[in-house]
Design goal:
It contains eight helices and two strands; from the N terminus they run H-H-H-H-H-H-H-H-E-E. The chain is mainly alpha-helical and 239 residues long.
Length: 239
């Protein structure tokens, strides 16, 4: 249920971006981003590997769960922190942080563009994750409900990591990917998901973040600024 709140927040930011000046209608942006997600060769490899890995691991899901559950592999405090990260607060914090940083660097135009990319990645990931959950109807290992496949914590945290990596490079992206991997592991530790659930969820979130980044980079604008100097005029390009 709390992932629906994340999705609603993302969609509200998308709506706000629609009210700003934009050269591309949002439905075209969404459609083109989805096309890039499924047509990009690297994404096809990532998603194919996640599908294959999830399929191969299904036969080992229960033995792996039974071997892990007696003792677990992380502390209660770490598990709680990672659960909170993957369950919502990280995405709101990221949206606020990206918005503030983008506005400082490039004003309203860059803020709108960056938030449009991030919120669309997270919103699309949430929508597709829940569509698959309700369609597949796999029971969780703890028996709480039938929304085990794929893991929403894993898909959302990897979509966030992929988006941050595209926005700010490896210095931000790599730590975000490591945290996302820890979040995925926590879902297994906490008996909320099977290994195959988190493997596919990680792949799904990654390809969506990367797919929409292709459209994001296509739409980036180049700004030209002229500044007077002692020796004449200085030309600055921001892109």
């Amino acid at each position: 249920m709390r992932h629906i709140v994340i999705l609603a927040l993302s969609l509200s930011l998308i709506y706000s971006s629609l009210t700003a000046d934009d050269s591309e209608p949002y439905l075209n942006y969404l459609s083109n981003g989805l096309k890039q997600t499924v047509s990009d060769r690297t994404n096809q490899i990532i998603l194919g590997s996640a599908l294959l890995g999830g399929f191969l691991l299904r036969g080992q899901d229960i033995p792996l769960r039974d071997s892990i559950q007696p003792d677990g592999f992380m502390s209660k405090q770490l598990s709680l922190g990672l659960d909170l990260y993957g369950n919502g607060w990280a995405y709101g914090a990221a949206i606020i942080g990206v918005g503030a940083l983008s506005y400082r660097e490039g004003g309203k135009s860059q803020m709108t563009r960056d938030l449009k990319y991030l919120s669309t990645s997270l919103g699309t990931t949430g929508a597709l994750t829940y569509l698959l959950k309700w369609t597949v109807g796999r029971e969780r290992p703890n028996g709480n409900d039938r929304r085990s496949f794929p893991s929403g914590h894993a898909s959302a945290s990897f979509a966030l990591a992929a988006s941050l990596d595209e926005l700010y490079g490896n210095m931000t992206g790599l730590p975000a990917y490591l945290i996302a991997a820890a979040v995925a592991a926590q879902r297994i530790h906490d008996n909320k998901h099977y290994v195959s659930d988190v493997v596919f969820g990680a792949g799904l979130g990654t390809v969506i973040g990367k797919g929409f980044s292709i459209q994001y980079h296509k739409n980036k604008e180049t700004y030209v600024y002229l500044f007077p100097t002692n020796n004449g005029i200085s030309l600055h390009l921001i892109f």
